[in-house]
Design brief:
alpha+beta, 8-stranded mixed sheet
């Protein structure tokens, strides 16, 4: 009976570990889908509505950030449509209620010198007590004797103490070390460049691979252009129409011109894929190449130090 329970527990643990590994591997191999949607209506005072979404496993689990009336809101979506959790990120300061001041105790009157005396409960004025000067207080016999026994520090004593100081003896080695001038800025730059220039080729290859980590999959733009100047509207519309034949197949741009109303409106959406597998592979190759270069440089410096050490001893 106990053996069967242990086998079941081991089976459950292995199943959970296998599921976690499967999710991690699929998260690395499958691309992360990032989409941004923006729209604006034809009213002149309208604000653009923006929504950004980051989806894992082709959108099976996504995090969406959407602009609402009073700020921004984040939502956790399941299968792209079922909202599991939502949270308000930023709220507009105009709609937030200002906190009411907390009533506190009334401040007590501050008595200042020269002010009118305060009348006490028995009718007599409350006059402040005169300040006592420390110099007017008589000294006791012990304090007077101690004061007379301690003479004040005079200038000849200070001069005598100053003349008794002996200058420290500086050896020749310390003088030579103090006279050494640190290397200048240009020398430090040259030394740093010699240390870094060996790692430039793998760094350039890493940057080129990082550009291939992000892939644009879809661009869709539908807009109506309406500027205050009809000539500027026609010029902008002509430029967009001239560029359209050279756009890739995944870019769809549809632009119209409105010469009667100076209001631009439309909708635009962008979707791209982020490949974590390419990022991991690029970083891994860079680490191997840079580590090998550093190891070879360290070995050369060590051999040079070994060859120079016998000559220095002789």
């Amino acid at each position: 009976m106990i053996l069967e329970i242990l086998i079941v527990i081991l089976y459950l643990v292995l199943s959970v570990v296998g599921l976690v590994l499967f999710l991690l591997i699929s998260l690395i191999l499958l691309p992360i889908v990032i989409s941004v949607d923006a729209s604006r209506n034809a009213q002149p005072d309208a604000t653009p509505q923006i929504q950004a979404r980051v989806g894992l496993w082709f959108g099976a689990l996504a995090v969406a950030v959407e602009q609402i009336v009073d700020g921004w809101e984040a939502r956790l979506l399941l299968l792209g449509r079922f909202c599991v959790y939502r949270h308000a990120l930023v709220k507009s300061p105009d709609l937030q209620a200002s906190p009411s001041p907390i009533p506190g105790p009334s401040p007590s009157p501050i008595r200042t010198p020269g002010a009118d005396p305060v009348t006490r409960a028995d009718g007599a004025p409350d006059t402040p007590e005169p300040a006592t000067n420390v110099a007017d207080v008589p000294l006791t016999q012990a304090a007077a004797a101690e004061t007379m026994a301690t003479p004040p520090m005079s200038e000849p004593v200070v001069a005598q103490v100053a003349t008794t100081d002996v200058a420290p003896v500086v050896s020749e080695d310390e003088k030579s070390e103090s006279e050494d001038v640190p290397p200048g800025l240009w020398q430090r730059i040259q030394d740093g460049w010699r240390d870094v220039q060996h790692f430039l080729p793998p760094t350039r290859r890493l940057l080129r691979r990082l550009l291939g980590m992000v892939g644009l999959k879809h661009i869709h733009v539908e807009a109506t252009i309406g500027l205050e100047d009809a000539a500027q509207t026609g010029l902008l519309y002509g430029r967009v129409q001239a560029v359209r034949p050279f756009l890739p197949s995944w870019a769809h741009v549809w632009i119209e011109a409105d010469f009667t109303r100076p209001a631009s409106h439309g909708r635009a959406s962008v979707r791209l894929h982020l490949y974590l597998a390419r990022l991991v592979a690029a970083v891994f190759r860079f680490a191997i190449h840079a580590g090998w270069l550093w190891l070879m440089r360290w070995w050369r410096l060590r051999r040079v130090a070994r060859t120079m050490s016998p000559a220095a001893t002789t």
